[in-house]
Amino acid sequence: MNDEKTVKDLQREVDKYISQFKEGYFSPLAMLARMTEELGELAREVNHYYGEKPKKDTEKENTIEAELGDMLFVLICFANSLNIDLQEAHDQVMQKFNTRDKDRWTKIEKAGE
């Protein structure tokens, strides 16, 4: 059994979850605030693991993976609430990077080149 999900699958799964509640999706402004909150929690975890600020004994145990998952959920909610297809958005940004920025960074040389 293949458990791999596409971006469209993720968007449908989140929509199915949110659609069971009368409240539905939050407003775009509330969604942005929620995303900012989750980004702060992610930043805190990254700082604990890779920065100079150790976690206090009283702080609950979170992981970067969990915080990234929270960010992804809110990002999908935000996109769904605005009827944005994240696969299309991704394809557009990759097209931009593969054209505009194709020579911006130093490429790794492959054997035989």
- What is the number of E strands? 0
Q: DSSP strand (E) fraction? A: under 5%
Helix content: 55-70%
Helix vs. strand class: mainly alpha
Quick recap of the structure?
With 113 residues, this protein is mostly helical. It has 4 helices and no strands.
What are the key terms here?
about 110 residues, mainly alpha
Describe this structure in words.
The chain is 59% helix and 0% strand. The chain contains 4 helices and no strands. The protein has 113 residues and is an all-alpha fold.
Summarize the SSE layout with pairings.
Elements: H1 7-18, H2 28-50, H3 64-81, H4 86-99
Helix pairs in contact: 1-3, 2-3
